[in-house]
Inverse folding.
């Protein structure tokens, strides 16, 4: 039997507020953002998209005229000065760069093509991990739960998270999902190009020396190849109830 609330029926929203940190990790195209945001929203707690922070830092770097060949010290200096603010409201999460809403721009091809290289810089990670922990600490201080999404949340940012979930799916399925998202945003690319881009980013994210994308040993791994968004959400509801994280 569960320690906490009753395990919800399929399709039934969490009845109550979440407590504790839920760490959601995995590569792109696993449905991580959608389910993280929906879980946070129905549990009435903040949702922190750490990928958006790396993307905003990348945008700042590009706007400063730097590129893939720029010196690490220059890249880190720009990121350090960049005023990146995450709006953690799960009903309307967005990211601000010096007060400007850059949510759409950070999802575009220029940032997407460069973000893995920028986020591999150890000092830049240190900087952003510090800011991510500050958001988490603020939520915890308010006695609120928080859903945090990224690549290294369960391993590095919040290793004591109450629940760690690692979403995965095959490259091909993730590329199909990414392609559909891109088309919806008016950025069409052929399937082979999207698949190559997904694999390239995975390779960079999993092979970087500092906090590479990896499942924490105590993470619940969910393969979403054959799971709809609703089915993944059901599983998350079951997990938070089972762990007593709903009050
Ligand atoms: O989740 P996303 O696609 O928006 O993330 C963009 C990139 O940011 C991703 O390719 C790797 C990087 N990232 C990271 O290194 N660590 C995180 N916690 C989140 C994202």
């Amino acid at each position: 039997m569960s320690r906490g609330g009753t395990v919800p029926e399929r399709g039934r929203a969490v009845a109550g507020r979440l407590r504790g940190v839920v760490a959601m990790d995995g590569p792109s195209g696993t449905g991580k953002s959608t389910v993280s945001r929906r879980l946070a929203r129905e549990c009435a707690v903040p949702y922190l998209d750490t990928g958006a922070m790396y993307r905003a830092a990348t945008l700042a770097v590009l706007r400063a005229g730097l590129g893939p060949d720029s010196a690490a010290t220059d890249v880190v200096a720009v990121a350090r000065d960049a005023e990146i603010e995450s709006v953690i409201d799960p009903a309307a999460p967005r990211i601000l760069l010096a007060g400007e809403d850059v949510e759409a721009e950070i999802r575009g091809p220029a940032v997407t093509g460069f973000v893995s290289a920028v986020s591999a810089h150890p000092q830049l990670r240190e900087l952003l991990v510090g800011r991510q922990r500050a958001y988490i600490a603020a939520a915890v201080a308010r006695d609120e739960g928080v859903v945090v999404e990224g690549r290294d949340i369960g391993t590095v940012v919040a290793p004591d998270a109450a629940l760690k979930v690692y979403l995965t799916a095959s490259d091909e399925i993730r590329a199909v999902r990414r392609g559909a998202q891109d088309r919806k945003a008016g950025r069409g690319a052929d399937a082979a190009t999207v698949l190559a881009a997904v694999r390239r980013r995975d390779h960079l994210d999993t092979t970087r020396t500092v906090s590479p994308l990896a499942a924490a040993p105590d993470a619940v791994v969910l393969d979403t190849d054959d799971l709809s968004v609703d089915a993944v959400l059901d599983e998350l509801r079951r997990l938070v109830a089972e762990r007593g994280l709903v009050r």
Remarks:
- The first strand starts at residue 21 and ends at 25.
- DSSP finds nine helices and eight strands in the chain.
- Residues 28, 50-51, 54-55, 115-116, 119, 150-152, 201, 205 surround 2'-deoxycytidine-5'-monophosphate (CB under 6 Å).
- The CA atoms of residues 2 and 242 lie 5 Å apart.
